[in-house]
Known about the structure:
By secondary structure, the protein is α/β, with parallel strands linked by helices. Helix content is 35%, strand content 18%. The strands form three sheets. Strands 7-8-9-10-11-12-13-14 form an eight-stranded parallel β-barrel, surrounded by seven helices. A four-stranded antiparallel beta sheet has the order 2-3-1-4. Strand 10, helix 6 (192-201) and strand 11 (205-208) form a beta-alpha-beta unit.
Amino acid sequence: MVIVMRPEASENDVEHVVELVREMGLKEHVIVGSDLTVVAVIGDDRKKEKTKLEQAPNVDRVVPILAPYKMAAKESKAERTRVPINDTCVIGGEAVHVMAGPCSVESEEQIMDAARRCKAAGATALRGGAFKPRTNPYSFQGLGEDGLKLLAAAREETGLAVVTEVLTPTDVDLVARYADCLQVGTRNAQNFKLLEACGQSGKPVLYKRGMSMTISEWLQAAEYILAEGNPNVILCERGIRTFEDHTRNTLSLSVVPEVHYRSHLPIVIDPSQGTGHARLVPDMCKASVAAGADGLIIEVHPDPEHAMTDGGQSITPDALTETMQSLRRVAEAVDRVLGGSDVMDTASV
Ligand code: PEP
Ligand code: MN
């Protein structure tokens, strides 16, 4: 941090600030300018309480230099983090992976059909909520453990990795028994006890951005998972709340290069919650990959009209197949490949 003194600060005021800095176990470098003096602090000050500096006589402001997150910051790790969800689905490498499936697990027939068709289209992971965070308490809440069992059966047959949401710290063990990757939803993005429990599970975590969180808050919260010794964090942008109402949320794609600039963690995009309209999903998939996303999580339903949740934003398996074909070309244009491309090659022969 840098402590900027007011122009009228005396030598004593500066000396007092220097003493406070030393009391904090840090070193100082005093720069006396023609108009004002600044005290540059040397050392990691992120965990230090700065109030006493801000309140010291004739301190104008205290300016942080280091990002408030540490383990999530690029400075703490030179190479990009790769998160292996299973043997074929590794997020953060050269391949861009597509996780696809219904918003909710509804029945054996629905999830098996969705899984087979998503696999045939080239997806490498299956999404589907067994525990649903619903705005209205009377809406369908998901099938719970029965839904997890159906997801595991779909994995057994197709080999797709399973990504599914966990809502509470007490459910983490249960969901982790069936899932390959735990999803933390936007409504729980600052449920720090849940983030810690996911960290302790050691499972990969698809961690969605809170709908009103800044990137800095999001990366600070990701630190709760990392600090438990779990490096397997995949950030997921799913749109934020703005005044715009032509979409359900505003899908902020500039976070992709920004997250890559600030952090070593991979980032995937959810264009389904991000737009709320199936017709917008294919183009936003392409835009996400063009912007450098490490993956996509897409809602795909064999019969969107009759979906129990989020049918309006769910694309059909045929639309997924078509989208994957153009994504392959977009990925190539930005020096990436599409994960599961071998499956598509076989399917198109
Ligand atoms: C979902 O993926 O179906 C979901 C509820 O997501 P979000 O937490 O982004 O709203
Ligand atoms: Mn949904």
